[in-house]
Amino acid sequence: MTFNRLYFNRGFLYQNFRQHGWLGIVYLLLLLFSLPLYIGTQIRDVPEEISSLFRANGEFHWLFAVTIPVVMALFLFRYIQAGGPADVYHSLPLQRKHLLTMNLLTGYVMILVPIWITAGVTGWVSATLVEPAFSFDGTVISMWGLTMSVISLFMFTMAVTVGMCIGQSILQGLTVYGICLIPLIFWGAFELHLQRYLFGYPEKASKFQAEMISPISRLTSLSIPPDWSELSIYAALTVLLSVLSYLLYRKRHVESATQAITFGIVKPIFRFGFMFTVVLLSGAYLSMISPGNPQIWGVAGYILGGIVGYIGAEMIIRKTWLIWSGNILPRFALYGIVAALILYVPVANWNGYAANVPSKNNVEKVRIGGDQYIYVDNRSVKLDDEQLYSNSIGYIDAVLTLHQSIVDAGQALNIRGQNHYIPDEERVQIDYILKNGKTLSREYMVQESSFQQEFKNMKNFEDYKVVSYGTYALDNDVRSIGIRSSLLGDRAVYISNPQLIREFKDLLKAEILDQTYDDQESQWESIASAEVYQDYRAELSSKRVLDSPNLSSTYSIKPTYTRLIAWLKENNLYDQLQVSTDEIASAQFIKQEIDSPGKVRWVYPDPQFIDENVKGNKKVATKNKKIISELLQRQRSGDYTEDGTFYQIKLNFIKGQNVYMMLKEEDLTEEMRAILIDP
């Protein structure tokens, strides 16, 4: 009897629901409008079968789950953040654990009842619809209800626990979302730090999905429904936070209401956490917008962020900008040293990370290019790694030679400023599987011309071409092939004959694998592209077999693919892709001079340059069929340069179409030079 009276005081609970019950009603209405009403009003010719209700307007469900429970906690526990109400409530003949229990119970009811009413209404709406837009079973509804319950309760209990350490409601709410976002900020900003200062650190060194580490960032990945392991973690944290809230509430002083931080031990944690977060963000931001060396700008950002972050933390704690005292500089120096050590130790040269190149005897297999993905069911799915790795001794040796040369040269991982390009820059992603079962990964941005011989040796291996050009996809069954002209998109042919498909893909694969290094590096535009539609059956990284009838791969048909081009001609397909000189009325040329020392530009076929001709350059037009024929056979895809002479070209078709292309000065034929270059 005493237990019931103290822990479930009916008068107290009645007052809670009378004063704050409207929050539960708002939560219910929001959920009803965003789920059952949405499902009931959508119209589709064919119902979409979904495995999670978060696929139906799910971003709103999740948004409500991470916001409304926090608002509930702020209102229910507002009394501990205000001086007058705190004195009144704590003068009642109830122990703190009884107050906390009844407030928690009120919050749980206001959260769980709307969720499960919405789940029931959703099931009823789905069952009564004659032509539903979505198809799902009861298990999907139950999983939605369980997920919403766990996440909502987690956000509520976290807000309650944070409120025990914070003495202001506004700061309490901000701190809750700060805690949710800090793991994501640390994950992203600290990885940027490692990429910038730790030579060879891969862009995606961790296989962990960053969007999963925060309920707020989870909004971006709701196409992947939460699984049992994820829910178990949130459920365990909810229980832990509930227990912690009891312990903190018992120690909290009533007079700490309206203070920024209620416990002295929390103040240094808050100071350093706030300061270090600002340090990481400031360093990352300045390095990304740097016009020069991003490493120097990053260090400047860390120093500036440390000063601003520490001052900001002190102002929040003291609730005033008058923060000067005798111990502020020694304390700032201590925090600054700790922050500097955290940033410096992982990237220091003496840790051996940058110089670590495995020996050939320790390497089991290797791959270049990183993970490969396909797009299935509205999300990227990682393919199984096994087909991407090579255990060829010669290829392993070529990769190791390139890797060692890069390490010996000590190339900076990122020496570019904002929007500053480096000619022939190449991203090198290396993954080794060592004989002890471990994986060693490195990533570099280097100029290929500085390691031309090493790149040539590596790229001449079939092992490299199979992965780089995706020829492994040609080993699957193919339903049809579409070939489209690179010059005019409406010039296309389709191959559906099984015999012709086999011949085409065998020739295409042979042409790709027979490419020389010079063929691979050529800047000449391809004559056409081939879209290969596959009956795809792939083994994913999860070892799950995937069947999908809607996958395709695109391959360039280069001018050097002479055997494939001859095959197209033999089967009367080539002429259907080509443009005749008789279709073109004239060709226009305009010179483009690039002169920007120290600043590399990307030069490409630019319709605006030749049509608007802002600089008033001289235009030269010709109807010479030989010149037009030469233009149809050769064009540049683009070029990174800081100086050079280019010609922007426009082909005017008789039927009104326009095609734009580009040539370098050294590409001009004698006939072109005769009309373009003054004697």
Structural class: alpha+beta
- Portion of residues in beta strands equals 15-25%
Provide the gyration radius in Å.
33 Å
Give the overall shape.
globular
Query: Care to count the β-strands?
Result: 17
Q: How widely separated are the two ends?
A: 110 Å
Low-confidence stretches: 538-549
Q: How much helicity do the residues have?
A: 40-55%
Tell me the major beta sheet: 4 strands, antiparallel
Q: For the largest beta sheet, what order do the strands appear in spatially?
A: 9-8-10-11
Number of helices: 22
Overall pLDDT metric: 82
Please describe what this structure looks like.
α4 packs parallel to α7 and α7 packs across α8. 49% of the residues lie in helices and 17% in strands. It is α+β, with helices and mostly antiparallel strands and 679 residues long.
Question: Characteristics of this structure?
Answer:
17% strand, four-stranded antiparallel β-sheet, 679 residues, 49% helix, alpha+beta, single chain
Topology:
Blueprint: H1 2-7, H2 10-34, H3 36-41, E1 48-49, H4 58-76, H5 83-90, H6 96-128, E2 134-135, H7 138-165, H8 169-197, H9 228-251, H10 266-288, H11 294-318, H12 328-344, E3 363-368, E4 373-376, E5 379-382, H13 393-409, E6 425-434, E7 439-447, H14 452-459, H15 462-468, E8 477-485, E9 492-495, H16 498-513, H17 517-521, E10 528-539, E11 545-557, H18 562-570, H19 574-577, E12 584-595, E13 601-603, H20 607-612, E14 619-622, H21 625-633, E15 639-641, E16 643-653, E17 658-664, H22 670-676
Parallel strand pairs: 1-2
Antiparallel strand pairs: 3-6, 4-5, 6-7, 8-9, 8-10, 10-11, 12-14, 12-16, 13-15, 16-17
Helix pairs in contact: 2-4, 2-6, 4-6, 4-7, 6-7, 7-8, 7-9, 8-10, 10-11, 13-14, 16-18
